[in-house]
Design a protein that fits this description.
By secondary structure, this protein is α+β, with helices and mostly antiparallel strands. The protein is about 20% helix and about 40% strand. The termini are far apart. It comes from Paenibacillus pini JCM 16418. This is YycH protein. InterPro entries: YycH (IPR009996), YycH/YycI_2 (IPR042274).
Length: about 425
């Protein structure tokens, strides 16, 4: 009897110990399951997936120079673009030397020598390019930002040339060792032989297709992230946020340190965190990595995006992620903000974050083929625009429009002007602001 009582008492003590441990871990202050630091945010369900920075770094276009004044262009996510870019990412580039470029006739090389030109619009830091391409570290240009990589061959020469163009004016670096043969380059160039022909304008700034261009017009099913989802994602403790309604109808939430403004009519949010950043200078590559991590944790990626940089300084960076539909970017317009995510960073700390609350569902509801004007019709319209401002670039894009049925994506030519403004030419040939 005594042994049975001892066993029963021991069992009660073990059960009591387990119950006490449960409350100590899960219910009392200090338990990991309820205690959060300011760097740990609530994970919100039903928002976008995470992304790696390597998947966000790629050229905005790929120009193929066929020789004899012939050219064509491939755009992201298209078959030949993906094939060529995947091959180039596996080749090595070493032994960089800075070369004199002021007296080089680049248009002559474009028109006469077969080659591939990758453009990165605002530029990508070399340290980030090294994450997607086999570029050997080199103190000579590791601190540069590259906006163009040009690989070409010259008749009667046995090696390929690989040039890296810096965003700093006319600074150009050539790789002394290139893991590409003349035959490799020619094989890549040959992919463009039967593609839409493009002609180079006189000043060499952009290319015009000689034929009309087919694009898909799409209507997409959409949903909208709620205020509660964004608050849960962005604030350490959403329960202590204070609500303020502005006269313009926008809602503002604040926890006394950070603020979130939601403009319901525009389906757009702006988040700000004025916390003092740590001492030191900003590093563009580290700011980009911090921006990707921040989006991963606070909203995720509701589609295909490409990295762009709007401006950098010793203290600040502005990182922009451009959204794509298929091979072409979606423009952020004055009348409807959509298609970009923008982050301001100070020494790795996000001080501002803007994005649309709209996200698309799976496949488009409906798709229709449309034609963008090419050849003489397009040249005439571009000549009219060029009378008032110099044209820096021309590329196909989509203008988004919010409708009662969802999101409408309309194909346009995007015309980038020297002052940074974008004009669009629709499939009907109408010039719009």
């Amino acid at each position: 009897m005594r042994e049975m009582m001892k066993s029963l008492l021991l069992t009660l003590l073990v059960v009591g110990s387990l119950v006490q441990s449960y409350y100590l871990i899960y219910r009392l202050p200090g338990g990991d399951s309820v205690t959060k630091t300011e760097n740990k945010y609530i994970k919100t369900d039903n928002m976008g997936p995470e992304e790696k920075v390597e998947n966000l770094i790629y050229p905005d276009k790929m120009l193929i120079h066929l020789g004899e004044g012939k050219h064509t262009a491939f755009y992201p996510n298209s078959t030949f673009y993906n094939l060529i870019y995947s091959r180039l990412k596996g080749r090595s580039f070493e032994s960089f030397q800075r070369i004199a470029s002021e007296n080089t006739d680049w248009n002559k090389i474009r028109n006469e020598d077969p080659g591939i030109e990758l453009t990165f619009s605002q530029g990508i830091p070399v340290s980030l390019l090294q994450r997607v391409m086999q570029i050997q570290s080199d103190s000579l240009f590791d601190a540069e930002q590259i906006n163009r990589i040009w690989i070409y061959t010259v008749p009667n020469e046995t090696k390929a040339h690989a040039l890296f163009f810096s965003t700093e004016g006319h600074v150009v670096y050539e790789a002394g060792k290139v893991d590409l043969t003349v035959q490799d380059v020619q094989q890549h160039v040959d992919f463009g032989k039967n593609w839409t022909p493009y002609s180079l304008v006189a000043n060499g700034d952009y290319y015009i297709p000689e034929k009309n261009m087919d694009m898909v017009e799409a209507d997409m099913d959409i949903s909208v992230y709620t205020d509660e989802q964004m608050r849960s994602s962005l604030f350490f403790d959403p329960g202590i946020t204070r609500y303020i309604q502005e006269k313009d109808g926008s809602q503002i939430y604040t926890d006394t340190k950070r603020s979130l403004q939601v403009r319901q009519e525009e389906n757009w949010m702006s988040y700000s965190d004025p916390s003092a950043p740590p001492a030191g200078e900003s590093s563009t590559d580290k700011d980009v990595l911090a921006a990707v991590d921040f989006v991963n944790e606070h909203g995720g990626w509701n589609g295909i995006y490409r990295l762009g940089l709007s401006g950098t300084s010793l203290q600040k960076s502005q990182v922009v992620f451009q959204q794509y539909y298929g091979a072409y970017p979606i423009l952020d317009t004055p009348n409807f903000h959509y298609g970009t995510m923008k982050l301001d960073l100070e020494r790795g700390n996000v001080s501002a974050y803007e994005r649309s609350l709209i996200y698309t569902k799976q496949e488009a509801q409906t798709k229709r083929m449309k034609k963008l004007a090419g050849g003489s019709v397009l040249k005439a319209e571009l000549a009219e625009i060029a009378k008032s401002s110099r044209i820096e670039d021309l590329y196909p894009a989509y203008v988004p429009l919010l409708t009662e049925e969802g999101l409408h994506l309309s194909p346009v030519w995007a015309v980038k002007l020297s002052n940074g403004a974008i004009k669009t030419i629709s499939e009907l040939g109408n010039i719009e602001q």
